[in-house]
């Protein structure tokens, strides 16, 4: 099998059910998800190097599968195909967000991305995820798109934030406060 096809040499690419320009908003949306997936793969590889983060590494591989589902759902030129991303995907993320939030110390101020290398990579994932979400919002305003993909990406960026903080906590690396931040998060009542 040859990797190159030459069919895109003039700036067009195939969707499921049609062809569009390579800078079409649909291609931009699932292309940004593909970019995110590459960063998640990097974060998973880095997490796998730490015994304390093996569960996170495995979870990130599952998320990569779900991101492929997101891209697949967005690759349809017209509605009507069976969709892969359902509301259960976002619900699973919510449970993981809650778990990782409990594993990290409380915060009252904004934090800077970083600490451990795993945490830094998860913050990169968070920001690319937000960009992917923005691209999906634009797509959905102009064309049919699975609304569960947008919901999933919204939760996923929160997941990356919680996981980045939990990774630092598990590796005994403190988060770095944004020193000019006011106290913006409420402390948990006991």
UniProtKB/TrEMBL annotation:
Stored Pfam families: Cob_adeno_trans (PF01923)
SUPFAM superfamilies associated with the record: Cobalamin adenosyltransferase-like
Entry keyword annotation includes Isomerase: no
Protein name as catalogued: Corrinoid adenosyltransferase
Domain of life of the native organism: Bacteria
Subunit structure: Homotrimer.
InterPro entries hit by this protein: CblAdoTrfase-like, CblAdoTrfase-like_sf, PduO-typ
NCBIfam families assigned: PduO_Nterm
Keywords: ATP-binding, Cobalamin biosynthesis, Nucleotide-binding, Transferase
EC code(s) of this entry: 2.5.1.17
Listed PANTHER family: CORRINOID ADENOSYLTRANSFERASE, CORRINOID ADENOSYLTRANSFERASE MMAB
One Gene Ontology biological process: cobalamin biosynthetic process
